[in-house]
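Notebook, p. 212. Picked up where the previous page left off. The plan for this session was modest: take the two constructs that came back from the sequencing core last week, fold each one, and keep the raw output in the notebook itself so nobody has to go hunting through shared drives later. Recording the first one now, exactly as returned: residue sequence, then the C-alpha cell string.
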Amino acid sequence: MKRSQYLALLAILTLVAGAIFFVRSNRSPVAIDLLAKVATARKQSPVTAPDQWQILDETMGGETKKAVYVTPPVRLTFEKVLIPDDGWLRLSFGIREGAWEQCTDGVLFNVIVSDGRKADVLVEQLLDPLHNPNDRRWIPINLDLSPYAGQEVDIIFNTRAGAGKSVDTRYDWALLGQPEIYLAR
C-alpha cells in the first residue's frame, strides 16, 4: 500500500471511531438492567399460576419491548438495589393487545421505593384500554432516583385489578416493559 492509501485508511478509521464515540456518548448508559434480575427478585401473589411471571417480547403500536408479563395482583420486589448518582428508573406500563376489547376493568400499576424505614410511591397509573383508547400503547415512565443516590433500596412494582372498582382480574394482562436504571447526563 502506498502512503496515501494508509493515510486514507487512517482517516476513515478515525471517522468511524469518532462516530461510534459520538453515538455512545449521546445515549444514557444503563447502570442496572432490572429485567435481567427478575429471576432473583421477590415475587408475591395470592394467585399461583404456571405462567404468572413471564419475560417476553411484546409489540404494541408497532413498538416492541422485552417485558415482564404478570397477571394481577402481584408484587415484584428488587431488593437492595444500590442507586447510582444521577440514577433514573425507566420502564413502560402496558396491557397486552388481546385484552383491549375484552371485559377488563383495567390495571392499576405503581412503583414504590423503600429504604426499610419508609416507602415512597413514585408513580401510580391506571391503564384501562377498554374504556380509554389512549391506553392502547406502551406508557413510558421515567422516575428520578437521585433522592436515593448512594443508598441500597428496594424497588417495588405492584399491579392490581381496576383501581379498587372490582376484583375482576379477567384480561388484566399487565406488562412492565424494559425496567432499568440509567444514568442521566
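Okay, moving on. Second construct, recorded in the same format:
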Amino acid sequence: AATALFVAGPKEWHRIARSMGIGYVLLVDKDGNIHMNPEMKERVHLTAKPAKIIISEPLIKPGPDK
C-alpha cells in the first residue's frame, strides 16, 4: 500500500487509500507538507513543526450510530 500511496501523491492518495480499505495514512510531499486523515491525526505526535499539515476527509465513513 505504501508504494501505491507514494505514487498517487498528495492529489490522489485519499482515493487510493479508500479503494484499498486503508484506515490510517500519513504522506509527506516534496514541500514538506504533511497530508493525513483525521484518524491518523489522533495517533501522531509531531516533534517538529512541518511546513503545513493538511487533514483530509475521513477515510472510513461513520456508521449509522455515529
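Notes on construct two before I forget. The longest helix spans residues 2-20.
Flagging for discussion at group meeting.
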